[in-house]
Amino acid sequence: MVGRPQRGRGGGHPLSRSDTALRVHRAAARIVLAILTALYAWMVGWMTLRAAPYGSDIASGLNRLLEWFAQRQSTAWITFDRVEFGANVAMFVPLGVIAVLWFGVRGWWTAPILGALASAAIETLQALLLDSRVADVRDVIANTLGSIVGMCLMLLLAFLLSPPHPRRQQEYRA
């Protein structure tokens, strides 16, 4: 989310631009964010609502890779279930990022809710419409976890990029 302008600041501060320029900047940022959100939603729909999650070429390559991992003691723990869980987590990390961009740092709580709702909707559609796919509660958990990871990354980034609080600066100087 693009921050609000702080009035009364001068001296070359980035938010001291004219209100019109700032409104144009915010509108452009929202348009870009809307396009990225739509592309992400399309990608998730394409990945999750097809008859098969991937083709036979990827399946054979994945099976060969998992067999290779299984043959080694140090990587035998890497199984299809764990790879699938990790892929589901990774697929929903952008949702957590997008939720914080849309609703701001104070709206952090929307990320896990959106992750759970979107995932539950996907799993319901898979159960109702796709005989070749299996709806699974573990997918809802993994997807929600992914949205929480994305949210946490954005909150950490916001914390690291935020200017220090004026009172804390005075305490450090004293």
Word description of this protein:
It is globular, with a radius of gyration of 22 Å. The longest helix has 30 residues, at 19-48. It has six helices and no strands. It is an all-alpha fold and 174 residues long. Helix 1 (19-48) packs antiparallel against helix 3 (80-103) and helix 3 crosses helix 5.
Mean pLDDT, nearest integer? 87
Ends distance: 35 Å
What form results from the Cα inertia axes? globular
Q: Ranges with pLDDT <50 over ≥5 residues? A: none
Content-based structural category: mainly alpha
How would you sum up the major sheet?
A: none
Helix residue percentage: over 70%
**Binned strand content:** under 5%
Set down the secondary structure blueprint.
Elements lengths: L18 H30 L7 H15 L9 H24 L6 H20 L7 H25 L4 H8 L1
Describe, in short, the structure shown.
With 174 residues, this protein is an all-alpha fold.
Question: What descriptive keywords fit this protein?
Answer:
174 residues, mainly alpha, 0% strand
